[in-house]
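Notebook entry, structure prediction.
Reason for the run: the old model in the group folder had no record of what sequence produced it. Starting over properly, with the input documented here first.
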Amino acid sequence: MMNRSLPIIAVATAPGRAGVGVIRISGPKLLSIIQALFKKSLLPRQASVLTLRDASGDAIDQVLAIYFTAPASFTGEDVLELQCHGGPQLLELVMKRCLELGKDEGLVIAEPGEFTLRAYLNNKIDLAQAEAIADLIDAQSEAAVLGAARSLQGAFSDDINSLIDEITQLRILVESTLDFPEEEIEFLENAQAHKRLASVSSKLTTLRQGAKQGKILRDGIQLVLAGAPNVGKSSLLNRLAGEEVAIVTPIAGTTRDRVKESVIIDGVPMHVIDTAGLRETSDEVELKGIGRSWDAIRLADLVIFLQDAHSEGVNGDELREKILLAIPPKCPVLEVGNKSDLMGDKQKNQPNKDMLFISAKTGYGIGELKSKILEKAGWGGTQEGLILARRRHLDCLERAASHLQKSEEFAANGNSSLELFAEELRLVQDQLGQITGKVLPDDLLGKIFSQFCIGK
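New structure, fully documented this time:
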């Protein structure tokens, strides 16, 4: 964990040239640092135009300084923001001068995510909101921006906390019954426990479904194009991307390594991977490319098994079986027949009625293919009200659902299993509390914030 007793400093704007660059300082002894920088004090929440000078008295830059007093700041500590011109070298000089003048007060460069961590530790935001800040910065689509913004405003946290409150009320009733067994209260009937459990279960199911959609919106879908050589995988990638990102020739084996391109389909990020054609070969370079193709298939969220629909019988049973053995559990496979523009009436006579026929060359069937991709990947088709979610959130919700199911089983046994019923409810609360950070190990907390950018 980071040392909260020291003031920290970092550039808060992105690397590179810009009209304005922002440097942020947060922590104790900030008044002394401000006095050392500008030889004067600053009024809280008022912008002051000041000149920062080097050790010789020469001007480094004219800056706009804004001082925020604790706890009315982003981190909950005293904060100073310096807005100066955005040249990388200039920002480096300003940072160097601040560190020189703040040395006696222990001023140090912030670690990744340290500003947001301090905001979390000072109860300015909870953990789900803290993660939403990083998600908002990294959002790949308009829908992802809106979802992250809703999480940052507390929509996801409110749903979690509301569910925790309901479970708390249920636990109070259970444990009060355990404390006073002589009253012989028929708890399950008098407290309407089954009805309360059903309500909690329904809300948790809705929350899980929304979180799954939110994870798709945040991380996108890892879509792998797999198949034999020369079936049109690169042509399909180019069609989905809307430009020529992969080389296409009539020569089998043209693609010898993975080609990855990110596209947006109906607001959903899609990471499309074109792989080398899967076949037996003695070419050492092509063999390495085929090995990487199998690696990509094993990590896929969705595999498109592409075949040449123009070939007689669309024969790919053996290759299909190999792909099914290689993909992760529950990873869907979408079978697609390409080159349908060459088929004529053959399409009507194909034995595989589940195959979707397209033409990457003409664009035929691409609209239907996009819809099928979203459907197979589990996208619900609506972005309204969605929040972004992470794998960590989904894991906590899955474990919470498992404990809730066990609590329902104990509730069905009547008062004889109330102790176990109460314990399972506590475990549900613990899992939900990990999402907002109310119950979280320090080592996991450090890991989460280490993934943030420096200055945030």
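Summary: Residues 220-377 form a domain with the Rossmann fold fold (CATH 3.40.50.300).
The old model has been moved to the deprecated folder.
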